[in-house]
Amino acid sequence: MKIGSVTLPHPFALAPMTGVTDTAFRRLVKRMGGCGLVVTGMVSAEGLVRGIGRTLEHAAYTEDERPISIQIFGGNADTMAAAANIVESIGADIVDVNMGCPVPKIASRSAGCSLMREPVRAAAIVRAMTRAVKIPVTVKMRAGWNEKEISAPTLARMVEDAGAAAIAIHGRTAAQAYTGRSDWGLIENIARSASIPVFGSGDCLDASQMVARLGENGVDGVFVGRGALRNPWIFAQAADLAAGRMPRAVTTAER
């Protein structure tokens, strides 16, 4: 599959998890095989633009991780566009916009999932970024802010119109955090109506679930977070299942 000009060898991706999906973990997952894309934990756009050393470290990657997406967060279109330029200048394949983080210190700054409550601002950010860089701009969002504000269908259309090359949707609201169940029905409805790739996320804890979700109603790919923490081999096993092979067994030595 392709995201803009970037070809992914597999439709399975490692979801960004701040403090977890660092370069060492991303390299481990890629070494196991089957993972088409890895995404960094979220990186502050403001920190990138200011050249803060610790922020630049969060954006560091190795050639072994390609294709690599660097996820940034912020609420100002000009700052996000400038940060996207920096991401492009350091050679990343894709720049991703975080519209899914429910953590108050992020959401309170008109960033993360709070952008789902301001779709016009969110679309303006994506539009500014796509005009600033040549690499694909993608968006990761949630179902919405809470059960009364399910804005993903509207926002998905708006960011696609603004130039986003792909969308990843976690089927929980910000209010749910990681409780309850991911709404894959919502994800699939959006995937059917979008003309860009749509990745689904949430509750894929084993390879068979990943492959089953991939085959349902137009979902183009699957993002996996917690499932990879439990089992870094999950992507290789899913790739085997998708290809009709027996999934790879994990040896005691590898564990």
Description:
The chain has 11 helices and 11 strands. The strands form 2 sheets. Strands 3-4-6-7-8-9-10-11 form an 8-stranded parallel beta barrel, surrounded by 7 helices. Strands 1-2 form a two-stranded antiparallel sheet. The longest helix has 14 residues, at 119-132. Helices cover 37% and strands 19% of the residues. The relative contact order is 0.14. The chain is α/β, with parallel strands linked by helices and 255 residues long.
Distance between the termini: 31 Å
**Spatial strand order of the main sheet:** 3-4-6-7-8-9-10-11
* Helical content (DSSP H or I, runs of 4+): 25-40%
| Number of DSSP E strands | 11
What kind of sheet is the major sheet? 8 strands, parallel, barrel
What's the rounded overall pLDDT mean? 94
Gross morphology is globular
List the helices and strands and how they pair.
Elements: E1 2-3, E2 6-7, E3 12-14, H1 23-32, E4 37-39, E5 43-44, H2 45-50, H3 53-58, E6 68-73, H4 77-89, E7 94-99, H5 104-107, H6 119-132, E8 137-144, H7 152-161, E9 166-173, H8 184-193, E10 198-201, H9 207-214, E11 221-224, H10 226-230, H11 234-242
Parallel strand pairs: 3-4, 3-11, 4-6, 5-6, 6-7, 7-8, 8-9, 9-10, 10-11
Antiparallel strand pairs: 1-2
Helix pairs in contact: 4-6, 6-7, 9-11
Structure described in brief:
This protein has 255 residues and is an alpha/beta fold.
Please name the defining characteristics of this protein.
255 residues, alpha/beta, two-stranded antiparallel ribbon, 11 helices
